[in-house]
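User: I'm putting together a teaching handout on how multi-component assemblies are represented. Below are the sequence lines for each component of a complex, exactly as they appear in our records. Could you produce the 3D structure of the whole assembly as structure tokens, so the students can see both representations side by side? Please keep the chain order the same as the input.
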Amino acid sequence: METIEKRLRIYYSKFGFIRFTSNLDVQRIWERTLRRAGIKIAYSHGFHPQAKIQQASPLPLGFESSAEIVDIWISADSDTKITEEDLNHYLPEGLSISYLEFIDPGNSSLQPLLFSSDYEIHFFDKKSLEELECIRQQVINSSTIIFTKHNGKQYDLKPLILNMEIHSHPQNGDYLSMKLSSQINSTGRPDHVLMYFQIDPAQTRIIRTQIDFIKQ
Amino acid sequence: MAKHSSLSPSEIHIFLDKNLFNIQKPGRYVGGEYNQVIKDWDSCTVKSILAFPDVYEIGFSNIGLNILYDQVNNKPSFCAERTFSVWEDMEMAMRKFHIPLFSLESKHPVIDFDLVGISIPYETLYTNTLNLLDLANIPIHSKDRTEDHPIIVAGGHSTFNPAPMSAFMDAFVIGDGEDVFLEILTILSQDDSRDDHLEKISRLNGLYVPSRYNINQYFLGKYCNEKKIDPIKKNMVSHLPASPKKPLVPNIETTHNRIAIEVMRGCSHGCRFCQAGFITRPVRERPLDEIMESLRIALRQTGYDEISLLSLSISDFSSIQDLIIRISSEFTTANVNLSLPSLRIESFSKDLMDAMDQRKGNFTLAPESATAIMRQTINKPISEGDLLETAAQIFQQGWTSIKLYFLIGLPGETMQDVAEIVALCKKVKSIGKKIVAGRARISVSINTFIPKCHTPFQWVAMDLDENIRQKHQILRDGFRNSGIKVSFPSVESSLLEGWLSRADENASSVIYEAWKQGAKFDTWQEYHTFDIWKAAFSTCGINPYEYSHRQRDLQEDLPWDFIDIGVSKAFLGREYQKSMAGSLTTDCRILCHACGIQAGYGIVCRNLLGE
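Assistant: Of course. Below is the structure of the complete assembly, with chains in the same order as your input.
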């Protein structure tokens, strides 16, 4: 009987300066973290074997998140008694596992099932509730929100913004949250929404708080 | 100890939060790597920062800095943090908001540390060094620093000729930096004035403190007995320092993402062009068991999947065969690859290749020259037959790609010697074709020879610009349509290195002027700073060709003579004369040629070998 590799699903957060580490680099961090923990990762076959790691949804450079998901295939003979605590010990500052589980290796990969992502936008220079409400009203009342990317291409953000809310927070200032489509070929980026409203994303802290999938 | 008011780490933190979003490769500026050490600031009696004057990705893997980082942080009352040169966009943002250069670990301004240790392995980092000090708000000139400023110490190979940078550095560590760096920190832990600290530092082994050493008196003393003073003798550690137990692992991609372990320091061959071969004598090997134990620890601690064995000439390591076999059998099951630096052609065997056949990547060979006469000149005798035989074996073992290193511009070299490089590479290529057919790849890297201090060629003139250009043309024409990839540095970048590497104290003003006029990142293709340098030499009234292209007399005093590398000037002179006569000097493991290192340090070279 052929031995089947195990599939480990990890739910983790990315906070602080490690937000300036790219998606590809985070993939390498997972590879090294598991090696440090003594867990054998499964590799693809071929001339240049690649570690089998799949991230649910790439997080743009500079964004923080409390809701990342990664699938890592590990060798069939590995121990399944891995705990969140064990692995956290081997992660660099800023990455932290909230939950992990072994899932059926035959399950579909996550990326095609992506539906939406929730983001919180916190402002370094405090914005008034009125200002934020004004943005929300514009989103609701516009029929199109055409954003021009740096390469000149345009896309309409309106159908991608599924929801927008305003939250008041006495200590850290009021903030915005939005639910944006994350489906393949129709992904909305929160920094683009901000730029449309003349807000420099560099002056905000963008946190992904949830990823939702298409119900199967 | 620092008494000035500068920014707090939290202010720097806020600057990073608000600006990094728009900076290229922001991961360079934030630290947070696995195994990073952050100590409680106030409980450290002496705080040091290790700086590398190039971007993070280049400096991160510097083995010397990593060893010092480990050594210092192992001491409870000392700390070592890190900083690197910042790229232009980051510099603009920092200057705009008056943010001084800061440490990656605690985000303290560099100026708040007690000691800044800067590694300067090559001369083309001089302007970056000045820029680094300036961004840190530290006065560029040593004489302008006060009790409020950290002590600035430089180390690395370029400091074997400290004269050009002596106006800017408070002290230089000449030779091995390990152990003596801790001694400097111990001195700084005593409550003394800056002057007293420097006075004490100047008495340590290998420490050159320009304000405490009278170079003129050294040279006068040679001719008049009563004024004699000792030269600065390089620091030499008999045993290689322990490899870091917790090596740093970067979050972003750096140039060397792998475990690098120094297995051997020094080289016994005496290739006459090679500065490292003379200044790092004697040969010291790390014992086999210690290497294996260090690798085990490093693999566990880093999660890397590649091991690199560092040394000037890895195939000379006494138990190289055993080492490679043990590495293969112990680690390669876990998808760990082994990479080796260039191998010497005459000293490795088929068995060695068998043992390292885990990965069929690039195989690197460094014949340096293509004719017998040139090989005699540089003392690297390899017969063409051996080279071709080796190439055949490499292809037969399954490698498909060979990289060859050559030098042009060597003393006495003719156009024919250069043309022979093309012919030789084509022979290697056709051997490859016979064995692995169309998969054979040959790439050739051709550097320009730059005469360096403390070598048998320290007296010779660098080859003329027009000759180098003509030689490049011969190579371009020769390799056209050959299917061989050839690369060489620009004439300008070689000239700059030639001008700076044998410069004297007067060059300080040129370096300062060039930096003032905007020269930095001189090694990066994007920055064409050559014209700035030319203008700076002219402004300072110095003809740079005097440094690079003047044949010196053997009896002449040289600006770096007061630095004693343990190898005597008389020995280097003999080697130079043998070179001109076309005669060879054997490997000193076979026969001692009395270079001076054994007598100078009271050692027996063979006792420093691993087994």
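A couple of points students might notice: The first strand of chain B starts at residue 46 and ends at 52. The interface with chain A takes residues 14, 16-22, 26-27, 29-34, 36, 249, 251-253, 257, 299-305, 334-335 of chain B (CB under 8 Å).
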